[in-house]
Amino acid sequence: MRLTTAQALVKWLLAQRSETLDGREVPLFPGVFAIFGHGNVLGLGTALEEHRDEIPVWRGHTEQGMALAAVAYAKAAHRRQVCVATSSIGPGALNMVTAAGVAHANRLPVLLLPGDTFTSRAPDPVLQQVEHFGDATTTVNDAFRAVSRYFDRITRPGQLIATLPQVARVLTDPADAGPVTLALPQDVQAESHDFPDSLFTPVTHRPPRPRPDARSVADAAGVLRASRRPLLILGGGVRYSGAAARALDFAERHGIPVTETTAGRTLVPHGHPLYAGPLGITGSSSANALAAEADVVLAMGTRLQDFTTASWTVFSPEVRLVTLNAARFDAVKHGALAVVGDADAGLADLGERLTGWRAGSSWSSRAAAERAEWDGRIDALRGADADVPSYAQVVGVVNGLSEEHDYVMTASGGLPGELIGGWRGSGRVSMDVEYGFSCMGYELSGAWGAAIAHEPGLVTTLLGDGSYLMLNSELFSAAFAGHPFVAVVCDNDGYAVIARLQEGQGAKPYNNFYADCTTSHAFPPRVDFARHAESLGCVVFSASTVDELRAAYARAREAAVAAKRPAVVVVKTQPSAWTEAGAWWEVGVPEHLAGRAAFDAAKPGQIRYLG
């Protein structure tokens, strides 16, 4: 079949299918986010236009934003569908590197297709080409190597035949999932080649469910049987495996309290008697209390990031760590007893080995008792008398008005701690907190991608004024394309959570709140977020009190759906009221600051190795 490189690539994309968690067959590549430039408009752009009725192309307005939307789509689709993002060479390509970092840190698949410079080198140096004096083969796209699970530069059309199966492997593999970058030189995109028809045979990708080695399962069962205070941690891998129901059944059969990580949040119904709450710094004091006493921890589908482990101080130094993970890289961390395999299949095997065994009832009942105390603290924060709403109250309003199939998200600043610690879910997966890379700007761009993927239900994203100012272009993209969601913008006059970290350690306030930033104005300008969002095509509501926020958010939900575009709620929020889970986090504290004494006191309790 005589095709250009770009035509062959698009035709291959269309032939790839995927199986969802509920068994439906869907396109593996449901859409493309694109900004065209001279490096991709004629090659890939022409090929995409030829199939415009078969695969939608959404135009972004920043390359980073559209690629972040693609990442969020993958999470909302539980990694069963993968979006494509394409740009020209140069700054457009480099703008997607941050999004690749988000995908890599969070183990989320995305296919990035940046244009590249001419392989012929005939017109060198071309517009946007960065020349490397000692290496003529290097282009700016080599920056993607550090943040890609798989990287290739297609310098001959026929190379697609060898690389495309590897692209599919990485994007659909539970252990390897992450960003794939194919750099596409613009002259190669336009070159023709005789491709084999078989390359375009439809293929349905069903993520494998590898069973763990029976010996490791037996060893893990032995450790659990000997435990008196076991604890179960559910991470993102449980979500992507579709193993939440089996995990909850496992906990019930054996009386094991359950906690969640950031990526595993909302897997367990909040009112379940074995649910201890979310774990770690941005989690709950209830889960942290049980973690401190647990003698065996079974961590499923999690890489145990420092916010989950409180920089490895949340567990007892005597704890025995057992991990169940599809990725051996994650399973062997910190000397854990590693069970490598699919979460659902591995838990089934482990359950068979534990028939008849249960933890003591006094330990099992601790989960509900500790969580009830935490719930009381959240209720008090939500019900506090305040002229200006706190983050906890904002989360409470959104939580209270959300419906069963809705989806909530955030990414940076103080809101992840409020959302993770304060949200009460029904057990349906309904949250995306991008706290692997904590990328400011993901909140709005990601909401666009999630809104395309998440059906039924409404997406609500929570963000601060800092994130809004950093990346808001995709509000217009979503409004233009007709994808509704609600964005609640919390304005507290600066980077409040970093100011909290700065001043809490004894440093002087500087460069975070606007009052502490350099300016030549006696009265510096302020952003009118409502008018700005309105100018980007959004429906806008403003609120100053909790009651006003409740009314505004309810109206915004209706307006977004009716208008088929984002609705933005702007609310002034308290700059120094936080939900505290009572855990430690390691940051570099200079010796002369007041916070150094607390650092020195906490550091010795940090677990270095559990083997």
Automatic annotation (TrEMBL):
Annotated Gene Ontology cellular components are: acetolactate synthase complex
Keyword Hydrolase in the entry? The reply is yes
Task: Please list the residue ranges annotated as the Thiamine pyrophosphate enzyme N-terminal TPP-binding domain.
Answer: 39-128
The UniProt record lists the EC number as 3.7.1.22
Source taxon at top rank: Bacteria
Residue numbers spanned by region Disordered = 193-216
Residues annotated as domain Thiamine pyrophosphate enzyme central: 217-350
An example of a Gene Ontology BP annotation on this entry? L-valine biosynthetic process
* The keyword DNA damage belongs to this UniProt entry's keyword annotation: no
A Gene Ontology molecular function term of the record: flavin adenine dinucleotide binding
UniProt keyword list: Hydrolase, Thiamine pyrophosphate
* Thiamine pyrophosphate enzyme TPP-binding domain location: 434-571
Similarity-based family:
Belongs to the TPP enzyme family.
Name under which the protein is recorded: 3D-(3,5/4)-trihydroxycyclohexane-1,2-dione acylhydrolase (Decyclizing)
Organism, as annotated: Amycolatopsis rhizosphaerae
